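Ticket #4471: structure export looks truncated?
Reporter: QA, pipeline team
Priority: medium

Steps to reproduce: submit the single chain below to the structure queue and open the exported record.
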Amino acid sequence: MSPQPSPETTGNTESTRRANPAGRPGRWKRRALLAAASLILSFLVCEMAVRLLFSDDDLNRQYYSTLSYHVNEGYELVPNTEESVPGYRVRINSLGYRDQEFPAEKPPGTFRILVLGDSVVFGPRVNLEETFTKRLEARLRAQDGGPYEVINGGNPDTGMGELLRIFQKRDLQVQPDLVLVCFYLNDSRPPVGFRSEFTGGDSIVRGMQKYPGLRRSLFFSWAYGKYYQALMARRLAGGPNPNLPFRRRMQWVELFENGAWREHPAALNELIEAAEFDWGAAWRPETWPEVEEQFRALDHLCREHRIRPVLVPMPVSVQVHASVHRTEPQEHLARTARALGWPFYDPLPGLLRARGGPPLFDDHCHFTVAGHEEMAGLLFQFLNASLLETVPASEVGP
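Actual output as written to the record:
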């Protein structure tokens, strides 16, 4: 006959059973907190180790002859580099401009104009002396012999956010009196593209491209670099093909090339919508608030350094050659300029008048030599009529 449990034993067992459900979650919670703390500590140790071994530029900046690209900062020109291709030559001076050598400190009596913008200002496929910045400089100097300098501040494939950073880093040191802010219609585009632009493909690669800020952690950047290299090695070795995310930025090209937009408003609307991740972004209301904030930051810098800004919207060639005029981006930028108190000049009407002559555009946005000459003439007329006549004589020398 087995012994019967005493009441005390029975009570203790029941108490333990009642206590266990409450105690078990407590133990799991402590274990989860300990695991999280260990994970965070491990990450911090790895981050410190990578930072000791590598710099941010080592992991996140790539160099391409005259350009460098940083995943969080975009493109910028590399000083003292050059590139020659059949028909034209590109040389970047010691200050990081596609321009002749000039001193960072402005000579006394010189009136210095900086033309800030992307590749439209930079001038691909033409020589430096053929760009509208240098043609404008030649016209100003020929007019009265005044000591004018017009600096080519173009930076390929940059948007307003990158241009603002470059203005702080590079352009303030050259002490411009006047800055022509040449805003092309895709300049709301972030360095790695709009987040909704990426579709399909490997989820890790897509996530890192959508959220490049993760690469501010050098450990994440290092680990992602190794992962991406492994994917590419598999592709090159003929193994399973990693389906890399598709960028929808250039999905408009086929519609542009078929030319139906020239005569048919519906085809023009379709083209603008297809270009939503490139120049068509200027027709999307949601892209403007961040751009306006960047303009306000630029305005603050200009006021602080006593620089006179002028807003100049650079059109897409579609706006010049389509039978229907779609000027909503220019109208929005005109309102932005008024709110900031900036002078505003829209070259689109002048380019429309000139479209019957030699071709103005080499592609959808970059000027031919004739286009650069036309643009220089339009800016020369505007500056003479609206701005330079108000400049004190002391600012442009004897």
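Status: closed, not a bug. The export was complete when the record was re-opened. Leaving a note from the reviewer for reference: The chain has a mean pLDDT of 86.
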